[in-house]
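Forwarding the complex inputs:
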Amino acid sequence: MKRMFACLLSLAMLLALIGCGGSSSQPSNSEDSASSKEIVIKYPTFQVGANTAAPVVAKLVEEFNAEYAGKYRIEVEDVPGDANYADKIKVMISSGELPPVVYGGGYKLLDLALQADLVVDLTDAVNADPEWKAMYNETWESTDCRDGRIYASSSEGQLIGYYYNKELFNQAGIKPAETWEEFFDNCDRLLAAGITPLAMDTADGAWCTQLLLGAMIAGSGDEGLEFMNTSYPTNYNIPSVVDAIAKIQKLYQTCTTLDANGGAYENAANNFFSENVAMICNGPWMIGDFSDTSKTTEGFSDKVGVATYPGGFVYDAPIEGMFVTKQSDPALEEAGIAMVKFFTSPKAQQTALETQGMVPAGATVEITQTALDAFPLLADFLEQASVCEKRGNTLTGLMVPGLEDTFSAELPNLASGADTPEQFCQVLTDFATANPVT
Amino acid sequence: MTHFKLSPKQKAARVFSYLFMALCVLVALFPIVWVVLSSFKTNREILSNGLQLPSTFSFSGYKQALEMAPILKFFVNSLIVSFASTALNVFILAMAGYVFAKKKFRFKNLIFGILSLSMVIPSTALMSPVYTVITKLHLYDTKMALILVYTALNMPISLMILRSAFAAIPTELEEAAYIDGAGFFRTFWQVMMPCAKGGLASAAVLAFLGSWNEFTFALLLTSSTSTRTLPLSLSYFTSQFSFNYTAMFAAITIAVLPSIIVFSIFQEQVCSSLTAGSVKG
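Prediction (whole assembly, two chains):
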């Protein structure tokens, strides 16, 4: 027994040594090595693993480290999983310690960090660089600026329409709709041909469904279009929203697959890849999957067409960009600004476009022929989108933080008919009113 | 060899009992078999018809899993963190369990109640304070941070098991040791500990499984490959708009095998000690 006791004590001491000999003791900070003055930027990111942007981030990190060799160096910290990343950054915000550079993504992290007074004002840095400043148009301002000050810089745009299966459309004798009446008529004709029209979902924010819903709201008239361009709306009990919700309820009950109620994006995507449905709403990042034979059949990509929404609407809003956070070391803040400028530069956006078909956030970024040749479906979509007069942000992009979870949790009740459209809108209104963003 | 002839009623009961056991085995094994089989399917096969057998037995999922995430490194980290936190947990809580089971002191039940109450605090409520404490201690991104946190997280269940295990040992045994001249520590180490072997194994297995499977704090308190544990690797295979279920199921297969092996080896001790102390007399 004495031997066992000794073993346990030895183990405990060994563990203490392992722990104390850990790699680092700070979540994020610069490391001025003894031999050089190189500043290390620890950059946590969810754009790793299966994430479509992972190759782009890896490439940009490599280029940045080469360009700033000896001065700045980025050390990537993998935070796999989008929601995991958002959760971790939120905890870091609450503790007041953020990494030097944070990517806001679709998680409204900028406002949370601003509320905690942790964000560096980029206005002077942007104004000092004409190329950088030229990218800040009206849509950028609503995404990355607050009270006339610039706090973030975007690299990726959200230019979103919907994809359709040309073969299934031909079977039903239809073409992409130009009006919403024509869209619902198309759905009826697809049903008559024995084809399920739409891929829909309810879980994980119901991405595909909320895109369809937002497009209907925007296409309903001036009130709806204004709603789709209003950040953090608190009143969802307006006719254009209630009417669109009623249509979504009908689509859930008649025009989609059984697994839509309770299903997530991957179920909706699989239904489109498997040719179980004729249409899916999603962005250009999906294009690569059309030729992935682990997800679909050989030659499927040739069957896919792309269209903007009826009424000439297209989603067009940059994704909340990167921001620099306040650090005790001003040199680290400078390094963070250099990184944000590099990662959101027109050149970096072109790299993302040519590598993964990611739509640039900046209107001034040239769409190169290399990209158009590599992603013909994207080229077709960009051409269609260029003539769209109605534009807006996504519905979840407009919602107050946390509302997308309530939206997602309440959708099954709407789909099953347990909630009326008015009741559903009241739930959204109640949450948004109780959690306004000032 | 003697043969007993069963009555029709006994035969029916036996058939029913076998059917029931088969059902239990099916329910227990189905998820494991399904995960292993899914690791050989394509994404399309998994999502379109989850119950069908794989069209081909390809190991590409395992190859992709190992390429996309540093699973082997995470695996080693998990082993170190899980074994260390389990050893610490059992070592400390065996002493606490013995005292709570056999000694009388003021506010004993109140203190035990407070320690047990920590079991009902949701981990999300602990995230921010634990993160702050660990960073202030300069233990962020170290294995020691996870070892300490897991030791604490597994405290209530280990304490309950070990208290029951020590309570089930007859007090006469302890008294006999004292009469023979053994002191407090000698009685604990040489008399009580061997008798509570089942409880110790049970607490150790549950603490190991708890540490092996933990995700939230592993994500929050670590940032580098050198400290991260296996559950995090599973998040590499799905993101908001992309997924690779084949690789994910391959990674899950790699991740759950040690848990299954550990539980299989110690299953008798775990089951017996979980019911120890429940029957008096």
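DSSP finds 14 helices and two strands in chain B.
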